[in-house]
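Session log. Operator J.P. requested a structure for one protein chain; no other inputs attached. Running the standard single-chain path with token output.
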Amino acid sequence: MTFEADTQQRRQHFKRSKEGTTNLVAVDTHGRVVGWACLGPFRGTRTSTTTGELYALYVQPSLIGSGIGRTLLEAVHAHALAHGFDLVLLWVLNDNPTARRFYERAGYIADGAVQAEDYDGVSVPEVRYRRFL
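Structure written below.
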């Protein structure tokens, strides 16, 4: 995965975002983007239309630990509640203890679901987390 390829993929994602998908952007005092989160309806098999999914939450690496991620996540939760979601699910890389701790401190718990995404022929295992709002 490269920065250039990911940038192009994100541009395409924004162009074809489904109805109900919300992108939240954090900017610094100079107007530069320092973080981004994307929320929408759960993409898996749903038992309820009140289940949302945090598709992505990224913070500029040099600013991790500064509170931007926590602020974005709080905004995600507020937006989810305002749009009728009472449960938020998300997928985290199994081998990303920093992200897993971040979500656990925010009240998310691993619910036992696992999946593996394929990136250029490499299987990357993920764990699903959930939080009731």
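Operator note: The helical segments are 3-15, 68-82, 97-105.
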